[in-house]
Design goal:
Distance between the termini: 76 Å
Number of strands: 0
Structural class: mainly alpha
Shape: flat
Radius of gyration: 21 Å
Order of helices and strands: HHHH
Number of domains: 1
Number of helices: 4
Helix content: 25-40%
């Protein structure tokens, strides 16, 4: 006797309200960030500023790592807006 199975359903890649891309969940070491040149900081500086609480980071597994979200936040911390934009924002 032959049996048939129901077709397999595709697994969702993310929970509702969660990350839409699995790359958002990858943890990067300070050395990887330095090697890729994503931020203008050495691995030592990234680790020191994270330990001091200056930079957002993750401490999964007891090691300092960074998610893409953290890397974007660090880059935004050093963004400088033109004077004309700052004056408009202050007046609002």
């Amino acid at each position: 006797m032959t049996t048939t199975t129901a077709p397999k359903k595709a697994r969702p890649t993310a929970q509702a309200g969660g990350a839409t891309d699995m790359s958002e969940l990858v943890h990067y070491t300070p050395e990887q960030i330095e090697a890729e040149g994503w931020l203008p900081f050495s691995a030592r500086t990234l680790r020191d500023k994270a330990s001091a609480g200056t930079f957002p980071h993750s401490k999964a597994g007891g090691r300092i790592t960074f998610l893409l979200r953290h890397i974007r936040e660090i880059a935004a911390m050093y963004e400088v807006r033109p004077v004309s934009e700052r004056k408009r924002a202050a007046a609002a």
